Records
---
Amino acid sequence: MKNYIKHHEWQIIEEGFDPHLHRVSESLFSIGNGRMGQRANFEEEYSGEMHQGSYVAGVYYPDKTRVGWWKNGYPEYFAKVLNAPNWIGIRVQINGQSLDLAKCKVENFRRVLDMKQGVLHRTFVATLPDGKRVAVDASRFCSMHNGEIGAIRYAITPLNFSAAATLVLDVDADVVNKDSNYDEKFWNEVSQQADSSLVMVTAETRKTLFHVTTGMTWQLEQGGKKMDVSPKVISRNKYAGHELAVSLRENEPLVIVKYAAVLSSENHPKATLEQAARQQLEGARAQGFDNLLKAHAAVWAHKWEECDITIDGDVAAQQGIRFNIFQLMQTYTGDDERLNIGPKGFTGEKYGGSTYWDTEAYCLPFYLGTSDPKVARNLLVYRYKHLQRAIENAGKLGFTNGAALYPMVTMNGEECHNEWEITFEEIHRNGAIAYAIFDYIRYTGDEAYLAEYGLEVLIGISRFWAQRVNWSADRKKFVMLGVTGPNEYENNVNNNWYTNTIAVWTLGYTLYAIDYVKRNHGGNFNLIKTKVHLQDDELKQWDRIASNMYFPEDKQRGVFLQQDGFLDKELLTVNDLKREDRPLNQKWSWDRILRSCFIKQADVLQGLYFFEENFDRDTIKRNFDFYEPMTVHESSLSPCVHVILASVLGYKEKAYEMYLRTARLDLDDYNNDTEDGCHITSMAGTWMSLVKGFGGMRVRNGQLHFHPYLPDQWQSYSFRLEFRGRVVKVNVAKSGTRVVLESGQPLEVVLNGQSVPLAVASS
Ligand code: BGC
C-alpha cells in the first residue's frame, strides 16, 4: 500500500519526483478518450524505469501463446491490445545534453490529473549536468470531443542561461509490448509522409493487419509571439520527426504546442487514412490548443453533470470515487458497439486489454446508471455480434446444436485464454452474459431487446448449460462437474453453487424470454425459431433441468456450499493468516491455495448479490457471516459485492472498510500492482458500492427503490441516475434523504418502502 497521492476533490496530485513511484504514477495519471489512451509517460526523453504505453481502441495483436502442455480446445493465440505508436515525444537537447529527468536534479516536480477537465499537467525545474536550469510546464489531453486528436502544450523556460537548443518532435512506431511472448515487435511500417508542416507514420500490425496512421504537427511561440522555424525532417524505419533549432532566452518561455492525430483502419478505409489524418492535423492546428481544450472540457463538463458523485466530509473518498468514474468514462464512451472495456483500460498491458465477464457483471450497471441506454445496449450488442464465435468456441469443446460458450477473454469473440481450469471450466461467465440482458431490461424497460438480439444469445447459452450438466443416477438430480467458480482459488470442483444457480436461472429466463417474444413479437419469434432450429423438446428438457438441479448446501449451518466437499476443508478465517502469508497468490503454492478454504472473491455471495430478491435476509446473513471471514479479496472485483451485501445486512463498518478498499485500490496501490495499470473494470464496482450499497438503489417492477444510509465518516453524499429518460438526484445527509427529479417526465420512486411522487421543480 502507498500513500503518496495528495488528497483533493477534483485532482490527483503527486508532489516531488520519486523514480521508484514513476511506473505507478504512469498508470494513475493515464488519459484517454475511448478511442485512444496514453500512460503518463514523459514527453521528454527518460532513461529511468518506465513503461511506455499508447493504446488505440480495438487494435490488437494475436500473440502466439506459450503453454507447457497443449490441450485440445486451447486457443492458438492471446489477443493483446497493442502498445501503439508513441505520439507524445518532445525531446530537448541543450548544449549537447538531453533533458532527461533520470540524469538531472529535479525540483518542484508536480504532476496533476485534473479530472474535471480531463487534462494531465506536469511542472518541474530541472538542473542539467552542466548547471543550466530549466522550468517546464506541460499539459496534455486526448480530446473527448474529437477522439482522433491529442494535444500537448509544453513550455520550457531557461532560468539561468540563454543558449541554442534542439527540439525533436516525433512519432515513433518502433515500439514494443512488454508482455510480448516471444520478444517480437508487432508493427511493420507501411509508409511515411513528411513535409515542413507535419510528419505521419502509417504502421500495420503483423497478422491482424490493422493500419494506424499517427501524425503530428506543431506550433512554437516565444515571448508571446509565434515563431517560424524550418524543421529538418528526421526519418528512419517506423519513425519520423522534425528537428528544430531554437534559441532559448533566459526567463522567456518557449512554448511548443504539439498536435497529434491517431487514426485506425477500424474507422477509415486504409486507402484514405493518411489523407484523413492530414485533415485532422490541419484542423487541430487551425483551431489551436485553447479551442481544442475548450471543446474537450465541455464534453467532460457534460459528463460530470450526468454522473458525478459528491461526498462531503471525506476528501479521500471523494477523490476515490471521482477517479473511478473518470477512468471509466475515458475508457469506454459507448458509441461503438465493436469496443469493450479491458480490465486495465488504456492504462497498461496486463490482461491484454481484452473483454472479460467483468463487463457484464460489474461495468454494465455503471453505464446503465450514468449514461444514455444506448451505451449499455452497445455492450450487449457486442456479445450478440460474437454469438457465432461463441458457438464455434463451444463446438471446439464438443458441444453441438448451437450451444454457445462465450470466451473467458476475447477481443473478437474467439477465446484467448489458455489455462484449462479457466478456459474450459470457468464457465459461469456465460451466465453473466445472460444476466446482463436481464439487468439491462430490468433497468431500461427495453423488453423489445429480447426480440431483436437478446433471445438468440439466451438460447445459445441455455443450450450450453443443458449439455454441460449431467444426470446423476445416484443423486437423482442434475449435476455440473469439473468447474471453476468466480473464486479462482478452487479449480475443477463439482457443483459450484453459484454456477449451478446461474445456469438454472438462465434456463428459466430463456423460457420466459421465448414466451415473451412469442406473444409480443410473433414475427421475430418465428424467424429466430427457424434460424436456430429451436425444438419444443429442448424447452421441456430445460424445464426438467431447472426443476431438478442439485445445489450443495449445509442444512445445519443454513448455508449454501461453495461446491461439493467444501466442509471437508479446515475452516479457518483470514484472521488466522499471518501478515507475511498475504497476498496468498504471491506467497503460497497453488496446491496449498487449492486445498485451503480461502476465497479469492465473492462466489456464493456473487449469487446472493445477483439474485438477492430470491433469498431472505437471514439466508444472506448466514452465508455472509460464513464466507466473508474466509475471503481474502485478492481480486479487485471482490470488495464491491461485499459492500452491497454488508449494506443490506446493516454491517456498516464492514461496508465502509470494503468501500475504501475498492475506491482507493489504485490511488493507494493496495495490491502493489498499479504499475501494471489501473483496475478499470473494478472501478465500476466502486460506483455500485456507493449507489447500490450505501444508496440501496434497486429497480423492482420498473420502479427505482432506495434504501440509503450515511456512512458515519461522511457528512453527506449525492449521486445522479439516468433512468428511463429522466435524471434523478439522490442526496443522503444526516438530516435525511432528498430525491429530486432533475429532468424528464414525472415518476414515482420508492424511498425506504414509501412511494414518493417526483416531478421537475418549475423554475
Ligand atoms: C478475476 C476474474 C476477472 C479477471 C479480470 C481475475 O483476477 O478472478 O474474475 O475476470 O481477474 O479482471
---
Amino acid sequence: MPEETAEHLKEVTEQLYKRNVDLAVRNKILSLLRELYQISILTLEPKDLATKVAEKVQVALDFELFGVFLYNENEMSLTPLGFSVSSKFNDSQKIQGCSLERLTIPNTSVIPTLAEVIKNKKVREISHIKDVWGTLMPTCDFTALANEANIKSTLVLPLVVRDQAIGLLMLCLNREYTELSQFERESIFNFVNIIAVALDKAILYKEIQIANARLKELDKQKSEFVSIASHQLRSPLTAIKGYSSMILEGSFGEINDKARGAIDRIFQSSQRLVLIIEDFLNLSRIEQGRMQYEWATIELRKLVEGVIAEMEGPLKDAQLSIDFSHDNQEYNITADEGKVRQVVTNIIDNAIKYTKHGGITLKIKKDSDTRKILLEITDTGIGIPPDVTPKLFQKFSRAEDAGKANIMGTGLGLYVAKQIMLAHRGNIWVDSEGAGKGSTFYLEFMAE
Ligand code: ADP
C-alpha cells in the first residue's frame, strides 16, 4: 500500500473513532436526560428528588462531585439537598477529615463566588474548592483533597425558576471545563433546567402539603369551637325560651298587651336562635363524623302530612296555600325519622321563607322499576338563578337574593339536608327557571 493511502486511512480511522466516541457521549447524555425527566415526574419530595438526581448525574457523567443546594432567600443560606461523590473523593474526604455533605453554608455573603452566582444567576468556574468551603472548614486540607480526588475544575450553576435563583449545583470534574465538547456543555445547561423545574415543583408540592395539613388542623379546631360554643349557648337559650313561654301562658300572672308583645318577640327570637344553633351542631357533628342515625321503617306520606300540619301556623301567617297530592299508597322507607322530618321541614320552611305570594305544592310518586320514591316540593317564590343552584348545597352558601331580601338564614340547612339524604342512600336537588320563577326541590329515597 502506498504510504500516502496508508496515511489517509489512518486519518479516516481516527476521525471515525472520534465520531464514535462523540456519539457514545451524546447517547449517554440523551438517556441521562430521559432518566432525569422520569425522576422529575415520579419524585415529589425535594430531598429525595435531589438525592436521586445527584447520584444519577454523578455516576453517568463520571463527575467527582455533584451537589444540589437549596437557597433560602431570607437567611441567604445554602443547604445541601442532594450530594453524590466519586469513591476517590469519598476516600480522600475521610483521610482529610472533611465531610462536606451535611455542611450548610450559613450565609452566602461570606463566600463571594456563590453570592455572585445567586445574584447574577450566571455560571461561574471556581479556581479551587477551598474557595467554597475553606472558611467553613479550616482544618480540612482542600489542596490534598483536590489532588487525591483528581479535581481539575469546579463549576457552580444557578438553579433559576421564574427569574429567581432557588438553589445551585456544584460540579467537580476530572477534566478542565474547556476540554468538554460543545455538546457536553449544552447538555449540562439542559439538565440544570430540568433539575430547577423539578425541584421547584417538588418544593411547591411540599409547601401545598404543609399548608393543606395546617388548613385541616384549623378546620378541625373550628369545628370543635363551633361545637363547644353551640353547646354552651344551648342551656341559657333553653331558659330564655322556657321562661318567656311560661310568662306568655300566664304562669306568673296576668301581663299587659305591651309586655306580651315584647315577650312574644323574645320567645320568637329565641326559637329562631335554637334552630340556628341546631344547624351549627349538625354541621360540627357531620364534620367530625359524629352524626348518628337510628334506622327504622317509616312511611313517608304520613311523615310529610305530619310536617304540613305542624307548619299550619307559619303558612297561615304568610298567607300561602299548600297542596299535597298523592295516591294514598304507602311509601315505606328505611330511615331515621327525626332526620327525614328535619329535611322535609327545612325545605317547606324555606319555601315559606322565600315565597311572598302564591303557595306550595307537594307531590309524591314511586317508580316501580327503579323502586325510587320522589318527593317534589314546588313554590311560587323568588326562584334561584341557574348559576347558583349547584352551590346551594355547600355549607354557608346563600343566593344573593336571599341576603338582599333580608331573609334570615345561615346557609347551612341545605348542606345538612344533603348530608342526611346521602346517608339515606338518597339524593336532593333543585330546579328553578330562574329569579322570580319559583323553585322545585326534589327528595329521592329508596323504597323498602
Ligand atoms: P338558609 O338558612 O340561608 O335558608 P339553606 O341552606 O336552607 O340556608 O338555603 C341556602 C340558600 O338556598 C338560601 O339562602 C337561599 O338562597 C336558597 N334557597 C333555599 N330554598 C329556597 C327557595 N325555596 N326558594 C329560593 N331560594 C331558596
---
Amino acid sequence: MIVLKSNDEIERIGDACRIVGGTIGALKGFVAEGVTTREIEKFAASVIDKNGGRAAFKGYRGFPGSVCTSVNDQVVHGIPSSRKLKEGDIISIDIGVFYKGFYGDAAITLPVGRVIEAAETLMRVTAEALDLGIDAARAGGRVSDISCAIQGHVEANGFSVVRTFVGHGIGKELHEEPQIPNYGRCGRGARLRAGMTLALEPMVNAGGSGVNVLDDGWTAVTADGSLSAHFEHTVAITEDEPRVLTEHV
Ligand code: MG
C-alpha cells in the first residue's frame, strides 16, 4: 500500500530531510585525500547527532555503519572502514536520518581531489538522471515515468543503470511502497499522486549493469570492476512542481 502524506507529515519528513541535506553539505568540505571512510562516518554521525537526528542505517537489518560509504567500483552499501581515500577516488555517501517519527534519505558521489574525466562524466550524468527523474515525479503520471526518464538519460550517455537496487517510498518507514526501479518503459506502475514522498536514487555504472555483493554481506560492487555513482533525493509529489526535501549546498 502506498501511504499518502498530509501537508503536516510532509513538513515533518522535510525536517528529517533537512538534517540529511545539511550533513551532505558539510561532507562536501570534509571528503579529502587521506581521510578514511570511518572518519567520514564519524563526522556524518556527529552532524546528524548535533541536529537531534538518528542515523537510520545503523543496525538496519544488521548494517554495521551509521552511513554507507562506497568507493570507486563499490555501488552502494559500502561499510565504513580504515580505508584511506586517495586522490582520484570517487566516493558515494548514502545518509538516512530518523527524526521525530519520520525518515529522510539522500546520497551523493563526491570526487577526491582531481579525478579522471570519465569519472567526472559519470557523476554528472548520474546527477542529471536524478534531476530528470525528479522532474517526472508529477501527480497524474506513473511510477515508471521516473524510471524511464532516468534510464533514457543514462543509456544515451553510454552508461548502465543498476537493476538490483531501486528507489522507494519513504515516511514513517525508511522503505515504503512503491518500489521505483531506475529502468523500465514509461507509463507503467502505480499512479503518482500529490502526497507521495519518494526516495529517487539512480545507481549508474560506467560499464555493465551487473553487480555482486562482497563476502561482508553488504558491499555491492560492479561485476566488471567499472566505476559507479549514486545520487539520491527524497522528493514530495505536489499538485504542481515536485519538491526536493533533501536539498544541500
Ligand atoms: Mg534510499
---
Amino acid sequence: MCGIVGYVGFQDCPLILLDALKRLEYRGYDSAGIAVIQNGRLLCHRTVGKLINLERLLLTQPVSGHIGIGHTRWATHGAPSEINAHPHVVDKVAVVHNGIIENYVALRQELEDKGTRFSSQTDTEVIAQLIALYLKEGNSFEEAVCNTIARLEGSFALGILCADEPETLIAVRQESPLILGFGEGEYFIASDAPALLPYTKKVHFMNDGEMAVITPTGVTLKDFSGNLLPYEVTEIPWSPLLAEKAGYKHFMQKEIFEQPRAIIDTFRGRIYPNKGEVVFEEFNLSQEEIKEIEKIWIVACGTSWHAGLVGKYMLERLCRIPVEVDLGSEFRYRDPIINKKMLLVLISQSGETADTLAAMREGKRKGAKTLAICNVLGSTIARECDYVIYTHAGPEIGVASTKAFTTQLTVLYLLTLYFAKRLGKLDEMKVKEYLSQLMVLPGKIEKILDDTKSIEELAIKYSKVEDFLYLGRGVYFPIALEGALKLKEISYIHAEAYAAGEMKHGPIALIDENMPVVILAPKGETFEKIRSNMEEVLSRKGRVIALTEPECQEIAAKAEDTIFIPPLENSFLKAILLTVPLQLLAYYIAVFRGTDIDQPRNLAKSVTVE
Ligand code: G6P
C-alpha cells in the first residue's frame, strides 16, 4: 500500500527520495510524487504509473533542496490520476498520507461550506486543506498540524512540509506504519525499513499517537497534545544487500533461492538437536500456562493464512490441541468465541496487515494471549502482541510471498515441537528425530534449486494456458492453495485449488483435455487416496502435472508431466519442500508471459487498509 518517505539534512534530496521510494515499490502503487522546498518555495511533481515516469519528469523539470517528502499511492479514494497522487499541496503546505480518513466526507463538506475548493477526490486533501486553514488563522505550523489531527478519524501516517518553516518536516503516526531514521546530521522518515537501509540502520518505530518534529538539528517527539515523549533508537539487523537483487532478474526469484538460508536463519539458535529441545527467547510460556491452553486460534491473510492452515495440521497432529484457522477479515466481524484460555496466533510477514491487526486487537480485548509470527522487526502486530516469534527471512520485496511462507512454516514446526514436548506428547528422542529431519530440509531445497531446467521447460509448455487446477490432500491441501495463489498472483492465470477428495463435488466438471491439474502426490498416508483422485482426472482426459518422490514411479508413468522432489520422511517438512517447485513453476510461467513479477497489477505487499 502507499509508501511514504521524507528527508531533512544537508544533502540535495530529490534523488534520495526517489531512491527510497524505489525501495518501497514492492508495497504496490499506481502513482507517485515528491515535494521539495527549494529556496523557500514548495515544488511538487507527481505522475501516474511507475516511478520511472516521475524520474523522467524530474530530469526535464529538476528540483533541488535539503528537505522533502515523497509518496507512492495505491488508490483507495479516487482513481489513480495525477490530481489524486500525493503530495497534496494547498497554499504553503504539502502532505503525504498512508491510511484512510474515515470522516473525510463530513470534513470536506464543512470546508466546502466555508468556500474551500477541492482539486482531488482523495480523503487526504482534507488534511492539507485543514492545515492550510489553521495556518491562515495565525497558528504555527506545529499548532496547525495538531489542530488538524484532532479533527481526523481513521488511520494516518503523514509527512508534512510547510514553506513558512522551510527547515521542518513533521511526521505523524496513527494506525499506519511510519519509522524515523537517524543519520549523521540528517534524518529520514519511511513507511518501512528497506527504504532506509542504504542510509541508516538506526530507527525509531513510531507508535500510534506520536508526532515527530524534524529539523536539521534533531528530532523532537511529542504526543498529539504537544507533550514531549522519549524515543528509542533500534538498530535494524538487515544488511542493505539483502534488499538488492544481487544479480537475479527479479526479487521473487532471489527470494525463492534464498529459502535454504532463510530457513536456517529461522531455526538457528532456537534448536538444541542433541537435547531434543526448542527454545524461543521471545516466547516463554510456563509448562502450566501451555497446559491451560484449551484452543489455538490462528488468524492471518493471504499466504500467511495458508501457513496457518498448515500449522493446524502440525499442532493438532502432534500436540492434540484443537486449532481453528480464520481469515483476518472474517474473524473480526463474526464475534468469535474466544477467551483467556485460548492462544491467538497472528501470522503476518509485514506485521501491518489491517485485518490481521484488527483481529489481534479483538482477541486481546476478549482476553486471549496473543502470539505474533512475524518477519518485520518493530511492526505493529509484533509490538502489540504479548509475544512474538520472528521469522528471520530478511526483507521480502517481491509482492508474492515466498521465503516468508516457508519460514513461517518453519516457525510453526518449531512451535509444534515446543508445545508437544512441554505437553508430554513427544519425548526427547522424538523431538531429536524431528529436529534432525528439519536440519536436512535446507539441503533438499538446495537440490531442487540446483536444477530448475525441467520446471522451466514445463513453464514454457503451459504458459499459454488460461486455467489451472491444483489438488492436494491433508497437509498438502494448503500447499496446493498456496501454489494456485502464486500462479494467479504473478501470471494472472486463473488457478484454483481443492482438497482432492472434494474434486468430485464440483471442479471435476471443469476437467477436459485442456485442463492442467497439478497434483501433489508424495508418499505417505494419503498417497493411495490421491492416486485415485489422479485416476479420476486422467479418465476425464485432464493433463496431470504430478509432484511426487522418485520412489513413486507409478505416478510418473501415468502423469503427463512429473516434478520429482528429493525424498523426505516427514510430511510436515515435505509440505515445505513441495512449496518450492510450485513457486518456481509460477515464477517461470510468469516470466514467459512477461508479467510484472515483483509488482503484479492491483496487488500490494502490505495491505494496511481493510
Ligand atoms: C498481501 C500480500 C500477500 C500477503 C498478504 C498478507 O496480500 O500481497 O503476499 O500474504 O498481504 O500479508 P502479511 O504481511 O500479513 O503476511
